[in-house]
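Record 1 of the preview.
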Amino acid sequence: MSSEGNSNSRVYRLLLGISSSTKIADLLVSPKTTLPYILTASGAPGWLIPLLVPIKESGSLIPQWLLKTTVSKRFGNRTSLWRIGALTQGLGILFLVASIALFTEQLLAASVLGLLILISFGRSICSLSMKDIQAESIAKGERGKLIGLASSISGGLTMVSSAVFLLSDQPLTQGISYGLLIVGGLLFLLSMLFSLPLSVRYSPESSEQENMQHFWRTITEEKNLRHIILSRILMLHSALIVPYIVASAVDSTSTTSQLPFFVGLSAFASLISSYIWGMYADKGAITTLRIAATVCILSALTFAIGLDELTNTMKLMLFFLLTLGHAGIRTGRKTYLLDITERSNRTGYVAAGNTCVGIGLLLLGGFYALLSNYIDANVVMVMTIVMILGLAHTVKLKSVKS
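->
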């Protein structure tokens, strides 16, 4: 790493500023809350809404092996590469707002899908490069704390904005929702300023076979990587369950009145949980995964069993608990990946793992969309069972050595 003239504390603060800004943007431009509300109000076709989460998430994961080969050969400066990703996301979101304001129906759907893919690609670049930046800049034992603190800061600021909407007499109008998206796009551009003093340089790798054979060899030869991928796919159901809880509440109440509650509770969960999860993850990432997964399983199980009897207040509470647990799973998983890898294999682990998880997410999305046509929201019970398998599978994860 090259960081001349910069103390470790300054680097920590800069990375905290970057992570906080981008996490706030992610909360404001959410495929689970803000985007569905705006698109529904704008007359987007109904088939677009269920595709938002799979495209946003898998679109940022699948390209990572291809990006890994490009990074290895052409980009020695990881921070420069990260700025490209942040710029892509920021501009993509601003163009997304323009498309929603100008287009309708099928043209709106096509433009939204195209721009979501572009935004996801930028997110993929940032994800891959930021892993190296954090690992090279922050000592082991402090990384989880950084991830958690950034989530708490972003959650607190987003919660304040949600409280303003809830305490005011005015509804969350379409114009205000546009403003939330614009702020999200501008925050990605602002985060680039925090990165200017940073420089994390890697020498281009000399591997000659950065192709599918190399990809397959990475998967087949690294046993722990395979367990990480499987565990992550199983635990990923904590995110897939959330839209079903949101949809069940929207069915019986106004979308406008419910949106601030969901956004606010999601932010509140990040505020109170992520810093604590981060400290626990630094002490034991696998234990953190197990505790967080248990919270998600109990919440999802309660929803699946009591679906017809639950009030909207109960559904909001379960949404909060599930979001709380999901934050712990994300923090534990990210910290474990940073701690279990070294400089020589980190980028390959991240790229190969994310590509496989992205493909798995697309397949799961299609499977559950088909299954829900037959069993409706009872599909949550199936997802909960899969999460239980994910919790059991954590015994296969290799322990992190100090």
